[in-house]
Amino acid sequence: MWRIEIRLETGDNAVRQRVSDDVAGWQQLSGASISVTEEEAGSGQQRVRTGVSTSVTAGLMRSKFAERSDRRRQPPRDVRLEDLPAAVPFQVFTLGGLPKPVSAWIQEGDGDPAAVTVTMTYTVIEDGWHVGNIWLRLASRPFADSPMESWRQEGEFAVCEEHAATHYRYKLRLQRLGTYVHIESTAHEPLEDVLELAERLEPLGP
Question: For the whole model, what pTM was predicted?
Fold first, then answer.
């Protein structure tokens, strides 16, 4: 039996999102028990420090003679916002009425163009304070659900709420012009304010 513990502290929310995506993929491991604790807090320097503590207890065995796969998931690559429409096979959206996203990157689909996803990160500043972030994810196929998430339907939207003593997070999913859209916010409350973000979706490019 192996126990693997990883602790990550970062002020870069793009890194936090990439780690969260990888951890979500670990849920598919058989014979593994995974628990994740995430804490988010603002500081006087107007930045967010995110600590992720992940424990994995697994009873997996691999023969040293097992054939290794040459297929490795490519790391996400940063891309300029104006280049996104030509880089992916689906309609790209941005959130209107907000400053440009601080980052935009593409996760390739291991050779499958239909599995490409786009993630944009928006920071939310109020009265000079960094109060949270918005992540906009786009894809041509539905997003995978995590066993750690509980989703419900609110009209045309799928909604997931996460509340803890140290943070809250709202997730919203919908489909627009054939594109699957995932909006995630740590800067909005109540839920109605998050639903309003969907009304800000604007097509980018032709």
Answer: 0.65
Please state, in angstroms and rounded to a whole number, the distance separating the CA atoms of residues 108 and 126. Answer: 34
User: How open is the CA angle 32-135-187, to the nearest 5 degrees?
Assistant: 105
* Nearest CA among 81, 2, 15 for reference residue 47: 15
Domains and CATH numbers, the chain: 2-58 (3.30.1660), 77-204 (3.30.200.100)
Q: Collect contacts of 158-162 with beta carbons under 8 A, ≥24 apart.
A: 159/191, 159/194, 161/191
Decide: residue 92, CB within 10 A, 0-12 exposed, 13-18 middle, 19+ buried: buried
Closest CA to 93 of 123, 124, 137: 137
Residue 153: which pLDDT band, with cuts at 50, 70 and 90?
Answer: very high
Beta strand 201-204 with 92-95 is: antiparallel
Query: What is the C-alpha to C-alpha distance for residues 12 and 137, in angstroms, rounded to an integer?
Result: 17
Structure tokens at 142: 């539905």
Confidence band of 15 (pLDDT split at 50, 70, 90): low
User: Which residues lie closer than 8 Å to 93 by C-beta, 6 or more apart?
Assistant: 136, 138, 176, 179, 181, 201, 202, 203, 204
Q: Quote the CA–CA distance of 175 and 179 in Å, as a whole number.
A: 6
